[in-house]
Amino acid sequence: MAQFTVNPTRLDPYKNFKFRVKWDGRYVAGVSKVSALKRSTKVVEHRDGADPSSSRKSPGRTEYEAITLERGLTHDMGFLQWANKVWNYESGLGSEVSLKDFRKDIIIEVYNEAGQLAVAYKVFRCWPSEVTSMPDLDSNAEAVALESLQLQNEGWERDYEVTEPAEPSFTEPV
């Protein structure tokens, strides 16, 4: 069975280094790393008294792991502004949490090597449970200062409207 239907001669799966993250209809500036999308379903074991000694197994509750976004530290306040909707220290008693809009749906897009949108996932009802606004500082290191945002979510699905793009072929000029 072919892995790619529109580009049947393609052998390699998509790479993990061309991607973008979107929320509120806008791309998030500078995201350099997104953790994996993972879900697990609990196993419920049960048996009837007349069953043999082995248990039957059925699916239980499904849980979705948190997603972590990382990016280089800049003047874009998007991570911190969203995290402040969940807890804002100086906002005053009774208004520390913005219950109206602290949750967002996000979209994670994966692109092929030619820069064409190839795969996308919709992640639902996300909210920041952890923010690293200022990373460890080290005068002996040669590294980018990273900030991160850990997002709890209530599920995700592949966006089936995003289909395999027809990849361009380049030919030598005659």
> CATH architecture, please?
Roll
Gross morphology is flat
Structural class: mainly beta
Order of helices and strands: EEEEEEHEEEE
CATH third-tier fold name: Pnp Oxidase, Chain A
What's the number of domains?
1
How does the major sheet shape up? 8 strands, antiparallel
Task: Explain what the structure shows.
The chain has about 170 residues and is mainly beta. It has one domain (about 25-45, about 55-160): Pnp Oxidase, Chain A (Roll), CATH 2.30.110. It is about 5% helix and about 40% strand. The chain is built from one helix and ten strands, in the order ββββββαββββ. The strands form two sheets. Strands 1, 2, 3, 6, 7, 8, 9 and 10 form an eight-stranded antiparallel β-sheet that branches. It has a two-stranded antiparallel sheet with strand order 4-5. A hairpin with a 5-residue loop joins β7 (about 105-110) and β8. The chain is flat, with a radius of gyration of 22 Å. The model has no long low-confidence stretch (mean pLDDT about 90).
Task: Show the helix and strand layout.
Blueprint: E1 19-23, E2 26-27, E3 31-34, E4 39-46, E5 56-64, E6 67-72, H1 78-86, E7 104-111, E8 117-132, E9 146-152, E10 156-158
Give the tags.
single chain, about 170 residues, mainly beta, Pnp Oxidase, Chain A, 8-stranded antiparallel β-sheet, two-stranded antiparallel sheet, 10 strands, about 40% strand, flat
